[in-house]
Amino acid sequence: MVESGAYPLFPQGTRFYPCQPCRGKRLERRLALHLEKVSHLKTFTGHGDGYVTVNDRRYEQAVVVTAGAVLTDWPATDFASLTAEHFDYFLPLQPEVLLLGTGRQQQFAHPQLLQKLIQAGIGIEFMDTPAACRTYNILVAEDRKVVAAVLPS
């Protein structure tokens, strides 16, 4: 509860509603979160050592995930062997953002490898694989044109 003269805990305009038992008593602030079902989209449902799962199907190789498809033909095997041709693979997909899951640890590719993607206006984010999976799920649920490419960890 916010005391008189204290700084507010919530942004201005945040709405809270009293619960039934609290009516007429102290106002209880509540925030209701609702799970939006996105079963028609391809989303990450798990990850672990050497695998990710997309819509409960397990993949132990590098995969590329879009809202509508899981692509297993990306020829990358590990981060150290990535070339410019591996990144050119994403040009026909035309994402707004490419999330690259680099395995257990976050790693960054040399900017020369990304030149065509940058020229095409595609944003590229390098993350460890679990972070890429989580971020992808959020962006695809927001109807963003996002592609996640994850390497086995």
Question: How would you characterize the overall build of this protein?
Answer:
By secondary structure, the protein is of the alpha/beta class. The chain has a domain at 44-150: MTH938-like (Hypothetical Protein Mth938, Chain: A), CATH 3.40.1230.10. The protein contains three helices and eight strands; from the N terminus they run βββββαβαβαβ. A hairpin with a 2-residue loop joins strand 2 (51-54) and strand 3. The longest helix is centred in the last third of the chain and has 13 residues, at 129-141. It is globular. It starts with 43 loop residues before the first strand and ends with a strand.
Which fold name fills CATH's third level, the topology of one domain?
A: Hypothetical Protein Mth938, Chain: A
Percent helix range: 10-25%
Please give the count of helices. Answer: 3
Order of helices and strands: EEEEEHEHEHE
Radius of gyration: 21 Å
Quickly give the CATH architecture of one domain. Answer: 3-Layer(aba) Sandwich
Protein structure class: alpha/beta
